[in-house]
Write a structure and sequence with these properties.
- This protein is mostly helical.
- It has five helices and no strands.
- It has one domain.
- Helix 1 packs antiparallel against helix 2.
Length: about 120
């Protein structure tokens, strides 16, 4: 296992933990059209933790990577909503710049997760 895989797994485990310990951070950025915000925050946090742990074991790495990639795609609307909410609040230019930077960062995380999951990391028909 590479250091990059351990770092990526740690990012997911830490991020998932924040969902569970500080869910109030995520409530304001949940798109209004989604139901059960607290449940979705909890489920996504658990999924991040399980996915991060799954990346650490060869037997589960591929499945974990696929699951995390699907999760990253699923939470992208929340990233857009976060930008919209904070723009409406009138955040500083640098805070808004960071939120804009976060959007393409999602693609980087997807690519990184794909690489850690292995070359055969794809959904089978």
């Amino acid at each position: 296992m590479t250091a990059g895989a351990v770092i990526l797994a740690s990012i997911f485990i830490f991020g998932g933990g924040v969902h569970l310990v500080r869910p109030e951070i995520y409530r304001p950025v949940m798109p209004g059209w989604l139901p059960a915000h607290d449940a979705l925050i909890f489920v996504s946090g658990v999924a991040e933790i399980l996915g991060g742990v799954g990346l650490l074991a060869r037997r589960t790495r591929r499945a974990a990577a696929i699951g995390l990639i699907l999760l990253l795609v699923a939470v992208f609307p929340a990233n857009i909503e976060m930008l919209r909410v904070y723009q409406a609040r009138g955040v500083s230019w640098w805070a808004e710049a960071l939120l804009w930077f976060r959007l393409p960062l999602q693609a980087v995380l997807i690519w990184w997760t794909w690489r850690v999951g292995g070359k055969k990391c794809r959904i089978q028909n």
